[in-house]
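Translate sequence into structure tokens.
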Amino acid sequence: MELFIQICLLFSIPHFVNSINIARNKVAFQSTSAFPLCPYPSFVTDSDISIDNTATEPNYKCTKTSFDAERYSWFAVDLGNNYIIQKVCLLSGKVGSLLEKFNITVGNYLQGETSFCNYVEGPVKNPTSTSFSNYQCFDCREGSAIGSFLIITKTIKGSRLELCDIDVAGVFHSQSDYKEINFKDAQLTSSPLYINHAAENAIDKNYCTTYHSKSVTDQPYLLVTYTKLYKFFGFVITRRPNTVNRLRHTYASVKTKPDTTFDSKALFCCKDKTHDRLTPLASLIIKCDEIYSGQFFLIHQYNGETKLLIEIFELHIYGQLVDTFQEHKNTISQKPAIRTIKNQGTLVTPNEQSSLLDNKFFHASPNLQVETDNLIEISSDLIYLNTVCLSFDNGNTRKPNDNIEIVDYQTNEKITAELNGGYDYWHTTCTDLKKTIFSNYCKIIIKGDKFIHEIDFLAISVKSKEYIPYSSPKKCEMRSSIEINLKNVTNPHRLHFLVEYHHENSNSNSIVAGGNRFLSRQWKMCESLKISEENEYLENRAFFKCNTSFEYIQVFNLNRMERSSLHVYL
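Result follows.
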């Protein structure tokens, strides 16, 4: 018992030597970076520690900001979660000291309110080795410094900052609302590029490589496509010295479809941001004006006339994974259901079809070359869709809009739409149909010589929600249902429901759907749509249609399903 008490007392005493460094291997940022050296901010948080600040590449392992007479130099580390910061220990370089006259603060992002930890007059001592005794430590006032970003800021403009390592001690407080979104499963698509300046250079964590689009178009873009749905909070761009139009008139928007053409009605994270600083490798920090959800994050430059370009050394995007068990918009790609593609009545080659459906945009070959008035016919399994997207290379001239015609399987009605062609070089352009339909056939009449690189059909819901049955045996006996609120849905007079369910022995005949009408408590059943055609897409799916307005909709009898999803379309 006495030994147990001693152990408890030992662990209750704050200690920092050999304690967990909550900054180790975390993402780091700084106001600028010395150039042409590539002093990564992450040198301060990685495990390769050196105090030789006189070394040259590749042996220089500290980080240093550039001179900027009009700015306060700063360094920041993203701790990943919110911590109560107790102590910050810094390791300077062995020669000189640029660590003096600075504040240590803690915040929830790189911009905005911060809580105070300490002010250091300095200078921080020069070390003789990397042992912990050579670090200089600074306490935070007890319980006063809480956040996920630890920031060191010089208090004199034009004063540079150099740091070799940091050790931060703190106690976990809470999960961060927004975190850096991992690019592991993301795909990047760009307007035309300079050779060896691929879009992937913007996310390779290498400050010596650059993503660089060509200045051949008036709307250059970088599209990030995620496999999951996120709420987007902001982003950080590290850029090189600004000469002409490097990062001007910048827009960022959140999308539910991969359209890359500029749309003034888009859901913008930010609008018309310009960063004119000439300082090398400066950090441009953007906090979204509004929080939106989507799978696509689009960075644009646009002013309506000038040919622009985007140049990025590193890109970091912050957001939050959407809880799909709450109401959200959902995008389903129906590309796997496409069976054949014809050009002027002739089937395209297997290589061409594979290229048009492989999610690899604007690669050199193979792609499909088409001419004015060519007829493209696309046959698929019977699918639900309301959006058509094609990726075109128009060359250096704008083209007329292309015409689309899709037949509604249930009513035999022909639905027509146009695909925007008013851009040069390559873009993905999407068009929304006037309603959600079942279809297995689409034709496109081309209005200009061009190349097609990718084809996709989408079903974009106005609201979706996932459901897992109760795990308690007692609750399993209850009638299980999904409910969605439609109060904020515009013109909900023609609703389509898609219920996806997963169970070996499930039977869609047991599922029923209906809702409460606006300004009434009357509950009304929805019509179950019976589709005679059989294919893989229709398996484990139940379809309903309602020709009235509802305030809430519900789908019942899901208790035997392993997992279910409800998607509402207009």
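Note: Helices lie at 2-12, 350-356, 473-476.
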